[in-house]
Design goal:
This protein has helices spanning 21-28, 81-93, 113-126, 135-143, 156-176, 185-199, 206-215, 247-254, 288-296, 314-324, 363-368, 394-407, and strands spanning 8-13, 34-37, 46-50, 53-57, 70-73, 78-79, 102-105, 109-110, 203-204, 220-223, 263-269, 272-274, 308-310, 312-313, 328-332, 342-351, 354-356, 370-377, 411-415, 423-425. It is α/β, with parallel strands linked by helices. The strands form five sheets. Strands 9-7-5-2-10-1-11-15-19-20 form a ten-stranded mixed beta sheet, with helices on both faces. Strands 14, 16, 17 and 18 form a four-stranded mixed beta sheet that branches. The protein binds inosinic acid (IMP).
């Protein structure tokens, strides 16, 4: 992917997030000129391991770790500036120079402290298991046409007037929701005054930058956050995030037309995880779930929450392939399965006695489905040193062949460890 024919490629999660998109973007960014985040915000946690250093990036695209790459935060992202600055400082402290290589869309909306208060208050009744970063309320304001955008900081006096109205509104909502918390206008005004001088030099028409880059024949990688089953339209609603995580969202959120995109890489784990609430049909029983969690280090990169773990669910990935138009698959964390004697794979579901190959719209129905499992014999050999498919044990190759057949998408990459070099290009 990202060759002469796929100059504009999207990388998306094809499960419930945390599939290892950060690593794939890092690997692909080696041949990219631009890497663009197009949705979500500081709810994402993209982990990249280089040598003995681990980087967790929330808003800055993982491509920043390559010195030749320019990174953009697109108009579809909801930006939490203080967190962004903390990320920039962390990168600088660790020797990564970002100057002149990071731009933020002037059309992107801001996540402000009152959004986090609202997120916490609505969690008390909705219990979705959000990351608490204010993502839902920020998107609500965007679509309710009362958001505050990066460009508003250019006219600080107007932004302060907007704030007066938004903070008062947030406080009315907090009261209605029975929360004792209140947002303070003075704190928000001071925050904007502090943010503007650092954020405005990064502000740009990022859609135009992507358009120009593509016209000049440069290679552009669009970096998705979360996964297809967390998409607000296609996911397990209401247990979803508030943006379009799927490839269609990439065009809108990066500010380009859909015809510009010519490759969509779906990233999946060799098994399945989910963090937050909502159904997970192939959730593994004890002690297998715990073993997957321990071996895979399955704890949230943003919240530290233990992830729920289960077996590969082909219905999920087939669905993700369809709604994203996947042209290739990257299977990550194959090595986590190395020690299992038997590995179940959910080939389809059974719903009220009938075989079901498609994702039901109703979350309640998804909570009721019974996975139809195929049992695969484990290979019980380490895979971490494999660099070609031929280096893998035959059982692991057979497992991958089956995932490919069930998903209907060709496997292009297999990741066998956290390090940059632990990858097989097929
Ligand atoms: P929110 O995005 O914070 O509103 O959370 C909504 C749902 O999406 C919750 O179930 C979160 O756990 C989940 N979620 C949000 N971001 C991520 C992510 O980067 N990885 C995995 N799950 C996520």
């Amino acid at each position: 992917m990202l060759d002469a024919k796929t100059t504009c490629t999207v990388v998306v999660g094809a499960q419930w997030g945390d599939e290892g998109k950060g690593k794939l973007v890092d690997v692909l960014a080696e041949r990219a000129d631009l890497v663009v985040r197009y949705q979500g915000g500081a709810n994402a946690g993209h982990t990249v391991v280089i040598g003995d250093k681990q980087f967790i990036l929330r808003q800055i695209p993982s491509g920043i770790l390559h010195q030749q790459v320019t990174c953009l935060i697109g108009n579809g992202v909801v930006v939490e500036p203080e967190n962004l600055f903390a990320e920039l400082d962390q990168l600088r402290e660790r020797g990564i120079d970002t100057s002149g290589r990071l731009f933020v869309s002037d059309r992107a909306h801001l996540v402000l402290p009152y959004h986090k208060l609202l997120d916490a208050a609505s969690e008390r009744s909705q219990k979705l298991g959000t990351t608490g970063r204010g993502i839902g309320p920020a998107y609500e304001d965007k679509y309710g046409r009362r958001g505050i955008r990066v460009t508003d900081l250019r006219r600080l006096e107007c932004a302060k007037d907007l704030l007066e109205d938004r903070v008062a509104r947030a406080n009315r909502l907090l009261e209605m929701m029975g929360s004792g918390e209140r947002a303070r206008l003075e704190d928000h005004v001071r925050l904007l005054e502090r943010l503007a001088p650092r954020l405005l030099p990064l502000a740009a028409d990022t859609g135009l930058l992507v358009h120009r880059a593509l016209r000049e024949g440069r290679r552009v990688l669009l970096e998705g956050a979360q996964g297809a089953l967390l998409d607000v339209d296609h996911g397990t609603y209401p247990y979803v995030t508030s943006s379009n995580t799927t490839a269609g969202g990439a065009a809108v959120g990066a500010g380009i037309g859909p015809t510009a995109i010519n490759g969509v890489l779906g990233v999946v784990k060799a098994y399945t995880t989910r963090v937050g609430n909502g159904p997970l049909p192939t959730e593994a029983e004890s002690p297998f779930g715990e073993r997957l969690r321990e071996l895979g280090g399955e704890f949230g990169a943003v919240t530290g929450r233990p992830r729920r773990c289960g077996w590969f669910d082909a219905t999920v990935v087939r669905y993700a392939a369809r709604v994203n138009g996947l042209t290739g698959l990257a299977v990550t964390k194959l090595d986590v399965l190395d020690s299992f004697a038997e590995i179940p794979v959910g080939a389809a579901y059974r719903l009220d006695g009938d075989r079901c190959e498609e994702m039901p719209a109703e979350v309640e129905a998804l909570g009721r489905v019974q996975p139809v499992y195929e049992k695969h014999r484990g290979w019980q050999q380490p895979t971490g040193t494999a660099r070609r498919l031929a280096d893998l044990p035959s059982g692991a190759r057979a497992y991958l062949d089956r995932l490919e057949a069930l998903s209907g998408v060709p496997i292009r990459y297999v990741s066998v460890g956290t390090r940059r070099d632990q990858i097989i290009e097929v």
